[in-house]
Amino acid sequence: MTALALTDTQLDLLAAAGGAAPSLHNSQPWRFCPTADRHGLQVRIDSSRAVPITDPDGRALHLSVGAAVFNLRVAAAQLGRTATVRLLPDPADPQLAAELDLSAPAEDRRPFGPDLYPAIAHRHSSRRPFSNRDIPEQILGDLVDAARAEGVDLAVLEEYGVRRVLELTTEAELRTAADLARQAETRSWLRPEGPTADGMPPAVLGPQDHDARVPVRSFTGHPPTRPAPPTERFEPLPQLATLATRTDHPADWLRTGQAMERVWLLATVHGVRASVLHQAVEWPDTRWRLREPEDGPAHVQLVLRLGYGPPGTPSPRRPVGEILDDTHPAEPHLPTG
Ligand SMILES: Cc1cc2nc3c(=O)[nH]c(=O)nc-3n(C[C@H](O)[C@H](O)[C@H](O)COP(=O)(O)O)c2cc1C
């Protein structure tokens, strides 16, 4: 056990890594608080940043916070510490999503295979068309293994499965487009041009598919309520993958968020881009129909589109000072002798 408490600089590095995680509509629904002895970090859900009409159960909220937890684990390794994670450690306090004990030195500086730390800053949602280049089987296998290591099944879909998921996503996107309350909620996360700390500024929005085959989310509505990027031709048969769990509780959603981020960072290391197609997960019936019936009782939590293309545009983040609650300042060093 290392005797050293986390310094302010280390806490800032951890919070910046956690805060760089992906989140629904870039809502960033997290807060990080050092433990009283400064040997660990609590990850709290910030419910004021929930997206309640689109995400009434908090599934996407927990997924987003789970992704932040994974980034913290990567950053802990960067600091030479092992992160021992307890998910939802206090049943009386469901906003406490996780507690990380960071007191032990890292036995392995690369606990996730390749060094994932630089990928935290390079990972972005890539909402533009991808090329037709196939992702090598070896890389896809590594992504499946990465999700499995987090206790989550990543299914790389074959053509039939891709077409089925595209159909369900189109159905859900059209239903969302006709739902005025959801449309208003999504629009409330759109941000104007200029400095902002959260939400979706115009630069990060992608085009719609000219051939309407890849149903990327329209953040500006159907028809668009604001100037939208011109349509472009997407890849005819995207490479889709689903993340699924055996049970469907908040701890499963936090695990899925960690698996999503682990897969996404590893993909980034390999130059593979990703974006999320979440619309079908947001309606109970389309979410249920996302599962492959022959796979048994699986709960699909997320749909990822993978491929080769532009890296995506960095989206804004809240400053560390807003997401790090430092109520336990570092002990002053007492003079010895
Ligand atoms: C649970 C979840 C659902 C998401 N759903 C979508 C989606 O349907 N369409 C989309 O383009 N991006 C989606 N995203 C990506 C977020 O919009 C993105 O992570 C956020 O805007 C921050 O941008 P970044 O990923 O580039 O850092 C989703 C992300 C999460 C975690």
UniProtKB/TrEMBL annotation:
Chain residue ranges for the region called Disordered: 308-337
Highest taxon above the source species: Bacteria
Region forming the signal peptide: none
Record NCBIfam families: Rv3131_FMN_oxido (NF047509)
UniProt cross-references to PANTHER family, sorted A to Z: NAD(P)H NITROREDUCTASE RV3131-RELATED, NADPH NITROREDUCTASE
Record-given protein name: Nitroreductase family protein
Species lineage: Bacteria, Bacillati, Actinomycetota, Actinomycetes, Kitasatosporales
